[in-house]
Design a protein that fits this description.
Blueprint lengths: L3 E5 L2 E4 H23 L5 H25 L1 H6 L1 H5 L7 H19 L3 H26 L24 H7 L18 H19 L8 H17 L15 H18 L12
Antiparallel strand pairs: 1-2
Length: about 270
């Protein structure tokens, strides 16, 4: 864990915030290059990344508050203004909504820009997950694997008492130490996200059907989250097997698959290299 990267007197640079800023500028830089390649006004990159970030944070926080409604009702101020509690799937919905509004306002093609942004969502997500790892948030179930790790000061700590309080549905009766080692699911998702980014990035100049790149992204992101969710700490609501995130992941895979095989438009786009 490394929640604070640098501390100079009263000034602290937090790792999670640093990773968010890194993700923001990485996405901005890549989108800027894509706007130049596609011969669009590069100012569009600033608008898209800014409103994507705003919508992403609001959507991620809203999803977290709804998913933890009992805790939100008990401590609304603490839950709303806590540094943690940003759920990616909510962020995806929020950022997509805001960017769609911006594109409609500017009368730009939703399909073209959705395809352009798809790889950036992946790399932004991968970088953000590194931030989660550094602060000890969004980890997985208890594990005895050689690479399992503990977060004694995590959010919440990986201790038997914390699991009993925050994750009462997880059985820790067979654990004989207070500190629990868990799956570093943040790193699993980060590695998978980076691999998916490179696939989507190299695919972008070969994309011929508008929208197909984004729908491939939905499939990849949905499949990744669906399977990783089995070893995460989220409560399984549906048949005591699937979490809410898995239901949304399946919807993402369905939408992506349907529109990939039955595109709304079959117009062939110019593949500028």
């Amino acid at each position: 864990m490394l929640p604070v990267v640098l501390e100079i007197g009263p000034i602290k640079i937090y790792s999670f915030g640093l990773m968010l800023v890194t993700a923001f500028y990485t996405c901005y830089g890549l989108l800027y290059l894509e706007m130049k390649r596609l011969k669009y006004n590069t100012e569009i990159a600033s608008d898209i990344i800014f409103w994507s970030a705003v919508g992403g944070v609001l959507g991620a926080k809203a999803y977290y508050l709804i998913e933890n409604l009992d805790r939100t009702m008990q401590d609304p101020y603490g839950m709303i203004f806590s540094g943690s509690g940003l759920v990616f799937l909510g962020g995806l919905i929020g950022s997509t909504t805001c960017v769609s509004i911006i594109l409609k306002k500017r009368k730009l093609s939703w399909y073209l820009f959705a395809d352009t942004i798809a790889p950036l969502i992946m790399i932004g997500y991968a970088i953000g997950r590194i931030g989660c790892f550094l602060v000890g948030d969004d980890y997985g179930l208890p594990s005895s694997l050689p690479w399992a790790i503990s977060f004694p000061d995590g959010i919440p700590p990986t201790t038997v008492s914390s699991f009993a309080l925050y994750y009462p549905w997880i059985d820790t009766s067979n654990i004989d130490t207070e500190i629990i080692k868990v799956h570093p699911t943040q790193l699993y998702e980060s590695i998978i996200g980076i691999l998916c980014f490179f696939y989507l990035w190299q695919r972008r100049t070969k994309n011929s059907i508008p929208g197909s790149q984004f729908f491939v992204y939905l499939i990849l992101a949905g499949v990744e989250r669906f399977f990783v969710e089995f070893i995460r700490t989220n409560e399984k609501y549906l048949f005591d097997i699937f979490s809410g995130a898995q239901v949304i992941s399946l919807i993402m895979v369905f939408i992506g698959s349907y529109f990939l095989f039955y595109p709304l438009t079959k117009t062939i786009i110019d593949k500028t290299s």
